[in-house]
Write a structure and sequence with these properties.
This protein is mostly helical and about 220 residues long. Helices cover about 80% and strands about 0% of the residues. α3 packs parallel to α7. It starts with a helix and ends with a helix.
Amino acid sequence: MNIFWLIFFRDLKVAFKSKQELFTPYIFFLIVASMLPLSLGPISWNTPIIAVGFIWITILLSSLMVMDSLFRTDINNGTMDQFLILSYSFSFIILAKIFAHWIVSCLSLIILAPIVAVSFDFPTNKVFLLIVIILLTTPAISIFVSIGSALTASLQKGSVLIGLLILPLISPILIFATHASTLAINGESMSGSLYMLSAISIFSITFGPLICSSSLKASLE
């Protein structure tokens, strides 16, 4: 089997064994979804615009919650050093790990987000468009959060720094994603925003693993 898929399934297996890391993002997502209406009051909570903002902020925070240990665990136990000496592209190994993280942290949120959105009076006939927007956006979010994780991999407590590093990078993604979601609610054309989100994700997937691998190599030296 290709090394890419071996590492991908290895990381999935490790994630599913660690129940706390696996379920924490989803529990966090559901807790915030249940508490937000209480904080907004009985009149203003059921608006689709609030649902859009809530979904994107929560997806970002949920991704951040599991990124602190994405590379650090393999660095501490020496696995990352073994990856370096393989006759296989180190960037593709990093991409496999990021792909596994996306499956664990984002794929289930793609299922949960439309359900929560409908509970916030999001138009049911626009739910499919919301899923498309999330599918186009979350890969770029995972890549940028991975870059922050790689840059702070040598630090024992780098979760706060990850947030500070990626927020300026990830803000344009959230702006386009929120804009596309708002256009979907209003029934307007969102092709421009979708093209931009697709371009950002493709660019991130192409160059993000290279940045991560360079940073990790520097940390391991």
